[in-house]
Amino acid sequence: MKKLFYFVLIILLVGCSSGDGRINYTKAKELIINNQAVLVDIRTEKEYLEKHIDGAVFFNLDDINEENALSVIGNKDTYVIVYCKSGKRSSEAYTLLKKIGYKNVYDLGSIDNWKE
After folding, report:
1. Among 3.40.250.10, 3.20.20.70, 1.10.1370.30, 3.40.50.720, what is the CATH number of 2-113?
2. Which of 26, 44, 76, 81 is least crowded, fewest Cβ atoms below 10 Å from its Cβ?
């Protein structure tokens, strides 16, 4: 029953995201709480060390390629939520990850979209 609940939750969340991969805080938080997604900080290492969302992994935009993505994120079926400072780099990361074959990529935009 629990697996069915999570399956339905994922389907609803995926269905509620927009065509550009944008995801809001509530939906992102639900995916992360249920261990369904990897939260990825696309900013520079300096920015990441100064402040980042708890549980986020660092992955600089300039380092995104297939080999690095497999190492940092995991397989291409993994749910990935990217964010940055303003939303520009996360949008670029979304596009790059989709181009190299990641199927479940979402863009939170700015770190300020995280409510905690």
Report:
1. 3.40.250.10
2. 26
Residue with tokens 């696309």: 42
Task: Check residue 26 and give left, alpha or beta (phi > 0: left; psi -120 to 50: alpha).
Answer: alpha
pLDDT digits (tens, 9 = 90+) for 56-77: 999 999 999 999 999 999 999 9
Exposed e or buried b per residue across 69-103, where buried means at least 16 C-beta atoms within 10 angstroms of its C-beta: beebbeebebbbbbbbbebebbbbbbebbeeeebe
User: What does the alpha-carbon distance between residue 25 and residue 36 come to, in Å, rounded to a whole number?
Assistant: 15
Spell out the domain ranges in the chain: 2-113
Helix (H, G, I), strand (E, B) or coil at 115: coil
End-to-end CA distance of the chain: 30
With cut-offs at 50, 70 and 90, classify the pLDDT of residue 2.
low
